[in-house]
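Lab manual, section 2.4: Encoding a predicted structure.

Procedure: take the sequence of the chain (110 residues), apply the prediction step described in section 2.3, and record the output as structure tokens. A sample record is shown.
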Amino acid sequence: MSVIDVNVPDATNVAVTRDTLRVELSDGRALSVPWDWFPRLLHAMARERNNWRLIGRAHGIHWEDVDGDISVEGLLAGRASGESQTSLPNGWNNARRDGARRLGVGGLKS
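Recorded output:
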């Protein structure tokens, strides 16, 4: 059995747009993925998506408001979240959408 030593670069910056997550890496690459890959973040409000921090020595990104994590390794491997629209807590999407309407906040995708 052979072992491949994979050196995962650090995330150096994260850019959040309406449709995508863009992660810049220490080796000069940048990855851009659609929010559709991450249902929890797809349905988050813009302010929640923008409230991120690097974790695990910059090998991951955490969103406190929605309790979501994405690893650089997973992004490099092209792995979307294992979570589906139906696996989110019951009523999660509706509660977020209703709360956004009450507050007059946009940024949700229905």
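Check your result against the sample. The chain has one domain: 11-103.
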